[in-house]
Design brief:
- Helices cover 72% and strands 0% of the residues.
- With 74 residues, the protein is an all-alpha fold.
- It has one domain (2-73): Orthogonal Bundle (Sec63 N-terminal domain-like fold), CATH 1.10.3380.10.
- Helix 2 (23-35) crosses helix 3 (43-73).
């Protein structure tokens, strides 16, 4: 948690409601760190960040597909 708290204070530009104490805060910190392309030392955080980025990219792609299909229906 020390590295996560460090990332919160050093890297995160946007506020993180709940801080690093809850799941939503951790995901928020990992996404902001991913966007800023900051490297982390702890393997568990690197792994968690990769998972969060993958899920986020998958949801974004799915949202784009839904938008395209809606447009094609018009």
């Amino acid at each position: 948690m020390d590295e996560l708290d460090g990332l919160l204070h050093e890297i995160c530009v946007m506020q993180v409601p709940g801080g690093s104490e809850n799941t939503y805060g951790k995901v928020n910190i990992l996404l902001q760190t991913y966007i800023s392309r900051h490297n982390m030392d702890a393997f568990s955080l690197v792994s968690d960040q990769a998972y969060v980025a993958q899920v986020t990219n998958t949801q974004t792609a799915y949202s784009k597909i839904l938008c395209i299909t809606d447009i094609l229906r018009i």
